[in-house]
From TrEMBL:
Similarity comment text for this entry: Belongs to the inward rectifier-type potassium channel (TC 1.A.2.1) family.
Protein name, UniProt field: ATP-sensitive inward rectifier potassium channel 8
Bias-annotated ranges (Polar residues): 408-417
InterPro entries with a match to the protein in the record: Ig_E-set, IRK_C, K_chnl_inward-rec_Kir, K_chnl_inward-rec_Kir6.1, K_chnl_inward-rec_Kir_cyto, Kir_TM
Coiled-coil ranges per UniProt: none
Domain Inward rectifier potassium channel C-terminal: 182-352
Main localization category: membrane
Membrane-spanning parts: 71-94, 146-169
GO biological process, one term: nervous system development
Site keyed Role in the control of polyamine-mediated channel gating and in the blocking by intracellular magnesium: positions: N161
One CC-aspect GO term: plasma membrane
Annotated localization: Membrane
Catalytically driven reaction(s): K(+)(in) = K(+)(out)
Length: 417
């Protein structure tokens, strides 16, 4: 049988209408990409297939400082125990060569008194190297070899102490410890400041000791392709900030907002609000300075990916004056508020300045309308309160009092109020 045709034409059917409906662009979720700099400042980079491992041994001290604490403590303990065992063997050989270990000869002078076994030689080695000196075992002037071993052990012990203690001191006084109190805002914002689109972050220092000569550098890291077809996976582009234009340092007394004006030289010049969410870029922030108390140069780092950049927001003020003292409320350090910001790119704003004017006018009108609604609501509430008060007052009015007086010979009563 032939299929039965529908009375409604195919172009007006449900499939035909759906096919002709305009479809909105669908933005797929961007695949989570490994960020170059983590939020805590650590570099997310793995070094593989390094063939020349011997280069690390040429700078042993830096290698020891860069190691983790557990490896440093293991090397520290192993080095001292090995040196004690090595010189314990040397003292035992000296005593054996001189005949101090022979129990038959009592009248002969010893090289080292009370060294009669390897255990006693090991204890004497520890006493010599760490200068404990209990007094039970001591060296005599009978053996020049023992004197030579004593000098060598003292020199080697001093070298080991200097290297190991210096390594531990450098690990405890590393500059990244000071960077733990240098904080960055959780999100970056893009808003209009002085009629220009600006990329802004907030930085702060939790300690009272200041960072001398603090500088802030911004870099945009993104994957780019050159006209010749070369793919650069990590292309670093320097970003200019307002603070670096006038001077090269910051006075980081209170939390500051670092501002980058998105102009023609900015890598964010062609990005709109929608394109920013779909872009694959990372903004790296580097804060450097000299610690006031120790004089050591410190560096704090963080980064912001596209999901951590809020378009049309501004940081709330956190510095207030209370009784002649400026107070900083760090509970609002990363808080932002929405402000009127055009969703277009900075290039479109430069080509069409009317977009910014229209956006500000719409924001002003909406602000005025909200104020009018608030005022009308206040009036209605006040009128309702006044009506309720009038009703309550009417309810409290004194009741009518009736006086009855007899009429002339009649039974009717007149009510007088």
């Amino acid at each position: 049988m032939y299929p039965r045709k529908s009375i409604i034409p195919e172009e007006f059917g449900l499939p035909g209408l759906v096919s002709r409906m305009p479809r909105k662009p669908v933005f797929r979720d961007r695949v989570n990409k490994a960020r170059f700099i983590a939020k805590n400042g650590s570099c997310n980079l793995a070094h593989k297939n390094i063939r020349e491992q011997g280069r690390f041994l040429q700078d042993v001290f830096t290698t020891l400082v860069d190691l983790k604490w557990r490896f440093t403590l293991v090397i520290f303990t192993t080095t001292f125990v090995s040196s004690w065992l090595l010189f314990a063997m040397s003292w035992w050989l000296v005593a054996f060569a001189h005949g101090d270990l022979d129990p038959g000869e009592k009248t002969r002078a010893y090289c080292v008194t009370d060294v009669k076994s390897f255990s006693s030689a090991f204890l004497f080695s520890i006493e010599v190297q760490v200068t404990i000196g209990f007094g039970g075992r001591m060296i005599t002037e009978q053996c020049p070899t023992a004197i030579t071993v004593l000098i060598l052990q003292n020199i080697v012990g001093l070298i080991i102490n200097a290297v190991m203690l210096g390594c531990i001191f450098m690990k405890t006084a590393q500059s990244n410890r000071r960077a733990e109190t240098l904080i960055f805002s959780r999100h970056a914002v893009i808003a209009v400041r002085n009629n220009r689109l600006c990329f802004m972050i907030r930085i702060g220092d939790l300690r009272k000791s200041m960072i001398i000569g603090a500088t802030v550098r911004l870099q945009v890291v993104r994957k780019t392709t050159t006209p010749e077809g070369e793919v650069i996976p990590i292309h670093q582009i320097d970003v200019q900030t307002e603070s670096a234009v006038a001077s090269n340092s910051l006075f980081l007394l209170a939390p500051l907002i670092i501002c980058h004006v998105i102009d023609k030289n900015s890598p964010l010049y062609d990005l709109s609000a929608m394109e920013l969410q779909c872009s694959d870029l990372e903004v790296i922030v580097i804060l450097e300075g000299v610690v006031e108390t120790t004089g050591i140069t410190t560096q704090a780092r963080t980064s912001y990916i596209s999901e951590e950049i809020q378009w049309g927001h501004r940081f709330v003020p956190i510095v207030t004056e209370e009784e002649g003292v400026y107070s900083v409320d760090y509970s609002k350090f990363g808080n932002t508020v929405k402000v009127a910001t055009p969703p277009c790119s900075a290039r479109e704003l430069d080509e069409k300045p009317s977009i910014l004017i229209q956006t500000l006018q719409k924001s002003e009108l909406s602000h005025q309308n909200s104020l009018r609604k608030r005022n009308s609501m206040r009036r209605n509430n006040s009128m309702r309160k006044g009506g309720n008060l009038h009703r309550n007052n009417s309810g409290l009015a004194p009741p009518k009092v009736q006086f009855f007086a007899p009429n002339d010979g009649s039974q009717n009563l007149n009510a007088v109020t």
